[in-house]
């Protein structure tokens, strides 16, 4: 009986993981911030991390590690990607230069899902973990 329970548990866990499978070659992330004196654009796909910290500057490009990639995929699996254009920003400091304007794009199978503008450092709670991971990864290559 114990073995049957373990077998059933493994089947259900395996099915749940299959439901969440993402074509890893078809997804990429882009996070950008801008204000009067600040600009940053971060692009990440399975192979590379690209960071530009000044308009017109050549991007710094590094290989995306397997660990970083898995962390991003774990974070994106918690998000209803098709709904991110409808997310509301929790604050409005960007309206009076209190924060840089930020946006997140998730590109999947040729379709771009982009958030509305939000305050850099204060994303909507639904994407908070993903934004945190993207920012953390980019800080390690500067």
TrEMBL record:
Name this protein carries in UniProt: Uncharacterized protein
Organism for this UniProt entry: Flavivirga amylovorans
């Amino acid at each position: 009986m114990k073995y049957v329970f373990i077998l059933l548990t493994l089947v259900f866990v395996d099915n749940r993981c299959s439901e969440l499978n993402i074509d890893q070659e078809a997804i990429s992330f882009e996070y950008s911030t801008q204000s009067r004196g600040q600009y940053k654009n971060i692009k990440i796909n399975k192979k590379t991390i690209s960071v530009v910290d000044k308009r017109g500057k050549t991007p710094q490009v590094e290989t995306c590690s397997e660990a970083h990639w898995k962390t991003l995929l774990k974070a994106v699996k918690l998000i209803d990607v098709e709904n991110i254009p409808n997310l509301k920003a929790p604050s409005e400091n960007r309206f009076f230069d209190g924060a840089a304007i930020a946006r997140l794009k998730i590109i999947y199978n040729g379709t771009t899902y982009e958030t509305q503008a939000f305050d850099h450092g204060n994303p909507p709670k639904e994407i908070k973990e993903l934004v945190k991971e993207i920012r953390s990864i980019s800080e390690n290559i500067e």
